[in-house]
Structure formats: structure tokens, C-alpha cells
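User: My collaborator sent over this chain with a note saying "see what the structure looks like." That's all I know about it. Can you take a look?
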Amino acid sequence: MRRLLLAVTATLGLIAFSACTDEPSTSTVPRLSATSTASTGTTGDTGNPNAVGGDASAARRTKLHAAADCVRQHGAPNYQDPLLTSDGYVYTDDVALRSLDGPQLDAIETACQDLIRAASFSMRDQGPAPPKLIQAGVRSAQCLRENGLPNFKDPTADRPFSPGKGFGLDPEAIPAGGKQNPTVMRALQACRKILDEEAALSSLGSLGHA
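Assistant: Without extra context I'll predict from the sequence alone. Here is the result:
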């Protein structure tokens, strides 16, 4: 419990930044994840069950639905069912958890941890960014660099993203003031169409066809 409280405390600070930027950060809620993954036929990062490919069975899909239903019933009514791809990767609706406070997240963890573990997924982590999304992120980064943000790096498959939001703004690549900085405002305006295309490709619906 003490570890969870520490995680929530750190989370609140990140949420404050996210609220200012309205962009996904690298971590916004405590990671309520499985402790084990499928023992055979898997590929990927075993530290992140969502990035472990292999198990795309109907049985796992049913378990994911049960876990998501529990999350909805215990404080996140808009939380969507995780997306399970044909490769066995999982993408989750972490944006729906951002408005929750510490006690609400604690209640979800207590009530749903067994179902989350059984489904072998994490509420916060994502599967690897697919090639089409990475390509869109590279176009966004190039546009931002060309419009006053020279430190904005191209994304890779390992870079965190949020479904429906894309890779977002790297706080280390933008000047003080975030989206309120005039330089950032001009860059976002100039690149809005490209950024919107990236966000669309990151949606759960698009990830299912990536």
C-alpha cells in the first residue's frame, strides 16, 4: 500500500503537467499490471505484458473484457475494453483514467487486481507503436523542428504514447511555459493537421488495423 501511495503522489505531479499540455506524458497513473505473462509462444518486453505478443486467443479477449468491466464498475465508467491485436499485443484506454484521484485508483487496484493479472495486461502500458503510427510521429516531429522546436526527436517503437493522443509533447524538447509559450503555440498551429493525423492513427480503432 505504501508503494501505491508513493506512486499516486508522483502521478499527481505528472497529471498537473499533462493538464497544462493536454498531451500524453510518459506516466499518468500507477501501473496496475499482471505479474506474469504467457509462458509459451510470446515475443516482446516481458516487463510490459501489453508488449508481449503471442496470446491472441478468444479466452484472453474474454478475460480482458472482464477486467475492463471491473474497472468501469469501480470508478472509470468510460474505460473501454483493451484492444487485443492478432499478434497478441494489447492497447489500453489510459486516457480514461487520468481524471481519477488516488483513492479511486486504489479502489480499482484492490477490486480488479486478480482480473487484471488473469488477463495478463497493464492498465497503463501499451503494446509497441506500430509502423504507421511511428511514421506519423516522425512527420509530426519533423514539422515541429521546422517550426521552432529543434530539440524534438523522432519517436521510436519504444516511446510511450496514449491512444487517441499520439506521442504527445516531450517536456524536455519544449521551452519553459509549455503550450503557453509563444514559440510552442506557433509550432502547434503550423503542425496541427499533421498532429491530428498522428492522433487519429493512435486511436484504439486505428491500432486494430495497423
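A starting point for your reply to your collaborator: DSSP finds seven helices and four strands in the chain.
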